[in-house]
Design a protein that fits this description.
By secondary structure, the protein is an alpha+beta fold. The chain has one domain (about 1-115). Helices cover about 25% and strands about 25% of the residues. The chain has 3 helices and 6 strands; from the N terminus they run ββααβαβββ. It has helices spanning about 25-30, 45-50, 65-80, and strands at about 1-10, 15-20, 55-60, 85, 105-110, 115. Strands 3-1-2-4-6-5 form a 6-stranded mixed β-sheet. The model has no long low-confidence stretch (mean pLDDT about 90).
Length: about 120
C-alpha cells in the first residue's frame, strides 16, 4: 500500500492519495494527471496549478493496519505541524492516526480542508 503526499511549499497546501498497491506512474505523470483525483476543496484548482508541486511516496504495510495508520499519521503530522493545510476531508484508507503526537481532532476549514 502506498500513501502519496503532493504538496506546495508556497501555498502551504497538500493532498493525500491512498493506493492499495504501489503506484506505477512516475511523479511527473502523477502531477500531470491531478485532474483525475476528486478532491472536494475550493482551493484545489489553484493548488493543481502551483509551480512548486512535489510528490512524497510513503510505503505503508498492507497487512498491519495499525502500523499503517501510525506511519501515515507520522508523515501527515510532519506537514501539518509546519502549518500546511490538507485539502479535502480527513479521510483515507487507512485513516492516518495523529493521537501519538497529541492530536485528538483536526481543525476543519469549511470547503477547504483541515489543519492543526
Amino acid at each position: 500500500m502506498e500513501m502519496l503526499i503532493v504538496s506546495s511549499e508556497q501555498q502551504k497546501h497538500l493532498i493525500m492519495l491512498f493506493i492499495r498497491k504501489k503506484a506505477s506512474m512516475s511523479d511527473k505523470a502523477l502531477l500531470k494527471n491531478l485532474d483525475a483525483y476528486d478532491v472536494k476543496s475550493s482551493a484545489y484548482s489553484a493548488f493543481k496549478m502551483a509551480p512548486d508541486l512535489r510528490v512524497e511516496r510513503i510505503h505503508l504495510p498492507f497487512s498491519d493496519e495499525k502500523s499503517a495508520k501510525l506511519q501515515g499519521g507520522d508523515f501527515l503530522y510532519r506537514y501539518l505541524s509546519k502549518g500546511y493545510i490538507c485539502l479535502g476531508n480527513y479521510t483515507g484508507q487507512p485513516k492516518p492516526d495523529l493521537t501519538p503526537w497529541g492530536v485528538r481532532s483536526v481543525r476543519m476549514l469549511p470547503k477547504i480542508g483541515f489543519g492543526l
